[in-house]
From TrEMBL, chains A, B:
Active site, UniProt feature: E474 (proton acceptor)
High-level lineage: Eukaryota, Sar, Stramenopiles, Ochrophyta, Bacillariophyta
Protein name: Acyl-coenzyme A oxidase
Limits of the Acyl-coenzyme A oxidase N-terminal domain: 31-167
Superkingdom field: Eukaryota
Keyword Protein biosynthesis: no
Family membership noted in the UniProt record: Belongs to the acyl-CoA oxidase family.
Native source organism of the sequence: Cyclotella atomus
GO MF term list: acyl-CoA oxidase activity
Length: 753, 753
């Protein structure tokens, strides 16, 4: 491995602690690596691709000095990295065409060659492991053209996107308006030729107030020359038709200078993700052609007449557009697994190497491995398990979205409104819960590294700061639970009204698990304000080691909490406004939405493992690997049971006397997983190049790495004679020499000021 | 207020939202300000002092560009700020001499004039609101000389400290050793004259391994010319006498160059606190005089003979030394209140101004104030209440430490071992809980500001990153619970053994509240592994609004959880090693220690308010102010009851059926406090200069402030023609022009790499 370019700092001898961990790992990490990648071939392709980037003779992809650079340098270097990446890809002529299983491009793949790029781009840029400013071009801008623009528009714009003549961003959020899209203020007003517009009519884009300035869009500040601007459409008769999308040129394609009436800039330093030029934009009477409005689902003609595009195919298409947007959330969920696993890898390897506290039992009086402390295990092992759970769920949700999309394209009628609502609730619940868990988890991994976790060279600081945005983008995690509950409450209504036909629509959805419990609970409902009681109850200590029992508890937990929300809302409607009733229920909604997310994560994990077991030898996973992943599943369920214990006690699904047994089972689950901890990290196959961490190195040789990073700091590099620091000559010298006034005792008082 | 220099950006008209909040505030914020400062005079002194710093004609104290500076610039400018501060203080001849109530300097105030400086320094530097590199000189180095060095040593070194000839730091932590001080590896080996040492003997300081390099000490990297080094003392006979303190010169007082055998440097960028030159140091055969060992409690003579200093007075003195160290923790607790209150001020003012979501009930269809959402209230109001609770507790703990110190100095016998252990448990529990709560709370305030909370100009990013270290310094928050429980378990033992005499020692301690419940619980203890049941139980909904009932619940919670720990330990000793038994109990210990901290915080809050009420008109607080602070207390108790509900359900102090009533009481408590939220922030009297926040401005005019901050970013400032970004010429230009290779379709495959 010492010649593997993915390990840039020459690996030294593997630390004795890590060597011991690895030799006692009860499974083969590489089998899990293959499973995560999809196949052994995919693993070696990924490794080759990463090596190829690292070996690039320009050396530009090195991340060694990230920690010491000012954000201006990071941004400009990231631009250079990006252009070099394009150059590399073009010279190698690589890419991969994505087609559906029947060999046809799917509806969104009108330009398959271009659409393939985002996926390839995502892979390549994730391997380069440094955010690249034009990211939003592929992630938001091109998908928007593909879903909302008509065929003619796509034919004109997509080749320009592919050739980077057009570098785009997606400009929705405004300075004063985030989650509530209906409140956006930017206007696009139609002007007919008779009103002085160019032939065919024009739109005039305006930012009427300071709060309407676009603010936050990635790539907008300095990089993009076009923006897909979300604005209120004012038609030829002056009627406000609500928000629509408009392709607005921002900068000259010739010299990148701002076009008349456009002002953009970077929004300034953020907690993380500072390579990116998130931007602001102000529009003052900017004129664009009529056909720069995205016209797939609505049109405006030369006379300024607004019309919705009708027809069955387009209804499906509008669902597809919706599904496409949800895929962004699904990608966020899926990528959370990787971010959390990186943090766990760093913290767990370090905890295996770091020693603290005397071991009175040991013959050589050595200190304990930090990983052997129960608190450290309680902090790290469930997070490690969660990183796998999120992988399974992310994979499942992406597959389901793809399936729904394909069904819609093929015109199958199975995709009902309930199915679309269901996947909306699922992605909302999982996005909110998985990203909160991941953001908090990364930070906890950082804290679990003690003092050294504060060092930027730990790799955890930038990992955390870059990830944090995921809690807020694509639906703030605090807002999403309402959307989840909104959908789930409709199921409760159907159950309450005994509408069995309607319930059939809920079969095969992610809400299916709630039907049976809800029917039983509604039958028994007291509706006197006391919490709904679970119909499943732990009755013996042994049940805590049984995953199917644990899943039943989580199933009833969602059902009970959800029914309580429904009843609370129904009851308070009688005494206050719907708005007030809803507001007073928000905290209960969060709990119920969290319960839904937990159940889905555990269920997908369990089902995913079952699928692999059924594949037999066709699975990348052998018996030992499914066994260790099953231990992860069990530990995670027990951990959540303990963490959210009040939910389970409230629904009386376990009694107080069983709590110590549940906690013993948790300790046992940690003991079982302990020997596999390092192996489960190794299985993710994050190279040292990607981890960028002195603490998480594969070889465990952390201390020389920390000192090396320290010595590279400009404060040390730029010292003058004999290590004297910057600022000594200007400041300290005079003070020490006694030249900065004289100490006059303590007779003075505040009144002298 | 518009001419107040503490509000550097000219205040615009107060936003209508904040004006409305202020006009409906049901109490006088300024009264609380006076109370927090100590008196109306103290308030005006503080304001004058702050204005004086801000108005300094050099303008060096401006923090306007902090966000855009590289850490090297921040460090060197902070050095310059520090020297200017000294110059200002000297020229004004200000300071304040601290004496005890009887007019005598206390034992630690051997050099009252110097000791007074840290407190003044703390105040001044907190008002300058930018960490200053030599901070550790006053915070750790000088106190160490005062507590551990003998009179002769103090007489020699303290004047040098005062005159900044000697700039010191405290070098304890090593690269491989943090919390476990016994494992430190640095050695100080005694050399007699006969062994080639200078007259009187010398110490040779060595870093025998890489893991023994000093690492982390603040001020060590570049600023300090002396360090108090903690090292293993090897006496003249070669016997290891454990860790002792040694004053080691690091740099020449003439030209600041490193002395022979010493290597120091900065440890590199950290998550925050980057003005500071936290440092590393390696010692290679560094010789220092024999008398550079701190000799108050132990001596080594010229022959290398080690001797402990004995005697009653010195036993008290050693307790004083211990108390002094605990005062550092108490300061950390106390300063947490301010940090958390700053974050709350920013988030709450912004939440009052930020609007989101349509209000169907409102006539003008305006959006809601974000602060009216229940989730936002649940996030922010308890934190606001906690910031006040921590203030009361911090004040109480500091006063108690001072009282104990004074008693020790005056030779009173009331300061028993139990008292010292008690204050140790209290500071450990509170430091761990209050700093965790504050760190998480600041981050939650940041997230509660949605997207704009990610901006560095929110003020929350640096506030959070600077604060985070508090969770790890002076005892890692994960380690401290063991120390708490260690002390508390001794009380349980006394109760279990029925030793009534011994229990008398626990009266008047912070553990007193546990005696009675423990006696009753031990009498009833089942000891069959089921959780201990509380003897207090909520029986009616009305009790949740009664603070004394809530306090009883918290009282029994600690007692039950503590007794469970004791019994679990006792039971598992039978089947496993003490080490294993202890390890398996760590999670339960955390819960019990948290319970202890919560009770103390609530009790001190309640007692503090009672004291003010008893003072009558002598108190700064009027009826309205104590009323609103009582609402804070009640809300906080209910919030913790909800947050830690599983503890209370486990001890059966409330039944599941009462949960909805508890939550209704919580909603009502939030409703009651809602009109006071902005007023309680204003009462902290943080100027705009100190908050450094576009979102938390006093005038609420946030959006222009955000744009102004954005435009100041170097990425915008350094743009070339027409706002074209840096990096365009080098990178994008060629790409857009088509000069970076050609798109060759998707025929390529991975195999081309």
């Amino acid at each position: 491995m010492s010649e593997d370019p993915r390990y840039p700092t020459p690996l030294r001898t593997i630390s004795a602690d890590l060597a011991a961990e690895r030799s006692s790992t009860p499974f083969t990490p590489l089998h899990i690596t293959h499973f995560l990648d999809g196949s052994p071939t995919a693993t070696s392709q990924r490794r080759r691709l990463e090596s190829w980037i690292i070996r690039d003779p320009t050396g530009i992809f090195s991340n060694e000095n990230n920690a010491y650079m000012h954000r201006t340098e990071r941004h400009t270097r990231a631009l250079a990295k990006f252009v070099r990446l394009i150059e590399l890809c073009r010279s190698a002529g690589i890419g991969s065409k994505q087609t559906t299983s029947d060999g046809q491009s799917s509806i969104q793949h009108l330009e398959g060659e271009i659409v393939s790029s985002p996926e390839f781009y995502t892979l390549v840029s994730s391997l380069a492991d440094d955010p690249l400013p034009p990211s939003l071009h592929w992630v938001m801008f091109v998908p928007n053209i593909l879903t909302l623009c008509d065929a003619e528009q796509q034919a004109e714009w997509l080749p320009l996107c592919r050739d980077w003549k057009m570098i785009g961003c997606y400009a929705q959020t405004e300075l004063g308006h985030g989650s509530n899209i209906r409140a956006l203020e930017t206007t696009a007003t139609f002007l007919k030729e008779s009103e002085g517009a160019k032939k065919g009519g024009e739109w005039m884009i305006n930012s009427p107030t300071l709060t309407s300035w676009k603010f936050w869009p990635g790539t907008l500040g300095k990089t993009a020359n076009h923006a897909m601007v979300i604005a209120r459409l004012i038609d030829g008769s002056g009627v406000d038709r609500g928000i629509h999308n408009f392709l607005v040129p921002l900068r000259s394609v010739e010299d990148h200078s701002l076009l008349p009436g456009v002002e953009t800039g970077d929004i300034g330093p953020k907690i993380g993700y500072n390579n990116m030029d998130n931007g602001y934009a102000k529009f003052e009477g900017v004129r664009i052609p009529r056909r720069n409005m995205a016209m797939r689902f609505a049109t405006v003609n030369e006379e300024g007449v607004y019309e919705k595009v009708a027809g069955g195919a387009d209804e499906a298409a509008s669902k597809v557009a919706y599904i496409t947007m949800m895929q962004v959330r699904a990608y966020i969920i899926h990528s959370s697994s990787e971010a959390l696993a990186m943090a766990c890898t760093i913290a767990i390897r370090y905890s295996a190497v770091r020693r603290q506290g005397y071991n009175a039992d040991s013959p050589d009086k050595s200190e304990f491995q930090v990983l052997d402390y129960r608190q450290q295990q309680y902090r790290l092992l469930p997070l490690l398990a969660a990183s796998y759970a999120i992988f399974f769920t992310g994979k499942h949700v992406l597959a389901r979205l793809k399936h729904i999309e394909n069904q819609l394209v093929s015109g199958a009628s199975t995709i009902t409104k309930v199915v679309v609502a269901d996947i909306h609730a699922t992605t909302s619940a999982l996005k909110s819960y998985a990203t909160t868990l991941t953001a908090d988890g990364i930070e906890d991994c950082r804290k679990a590294c003690g003092g050294h976790g504060f060092l930027v060279c730990s790799g955890l600081v930038e990992l955390s700061n870059t990830y944090l945005q995921s809690c807020t983008v694509e639906g703030d995690n605090q807002m999403l639970p309402q959307q989840v509950i909104n959908v789930l409450l409709k199921l409760v209504e159907k159950v309450q009204s005994g509408d069995d036909d309607a319930l059939k629509d809920y079969e095969q959805t992610d809400m299916e698990y709630l039907i049976e419990p809800l029917i039983k609970l509604v039958e028994n409902a007291a509706d006197n304000g006391t919490p709904t009681k679970s119909l499943f109850c732990f009755s013996s200590p042994g049940q805590f080691a049984d995953t199917s029992m644990l899943l039943q508890a989580f199933q009833y937990r969602t059902a009970c909490l959800l029914l309580d929300v429904a009843m609370q809302l129904q009851n308070s409607m009688e005494t206050c406004t719907p708005q007030q009733a809803w507001n007073d229920c928000l905290l209960a909604m969060s709990r119920a939405a969290r319960a839904h997310a937990c159940f889905l994560l555990l269920r997908d994990f369990a089902n995913g493992l079952k699928d692999e077991q059924q594949k037999g030898s066709a699975s990348c996973l052998g018996k030992e690997e499914t066994a260790v992943l099953s231990q992860c599943l069990c530990l995670l369920a027990l951990y959540w049971l303990d963490q959210h214990l009040s939910d389970f006690l409230q629904i009386q699904c376990l009694s107080a006397t069983l709590i110590p047994h549940m906690r013993s089972a948790l300790l046992e689950a940690m003991t079982s997983l302990r020997p596999s901890a390092v192996g489960l990290c190794d299985a993710r196959d994050f190279s040292d190049f990607r981890l960028k961490s002195a603490l998480g190195r594969y070889d465990g040789d952390v201390y020389p790495a920390i000192i090396k990073a320290a010595k590279n700091d400009p404060l040390n590099q730029q010292s003058s004679n004999g290590g004297v620091g910057l600022g000594y000559d200007e400041s300290l010298k005079n003070l020490i020499a006694g030249g900065v006034g004289e100490y006059k005792g303590v007779s003075g008082t505040m009144s002298r000021l």
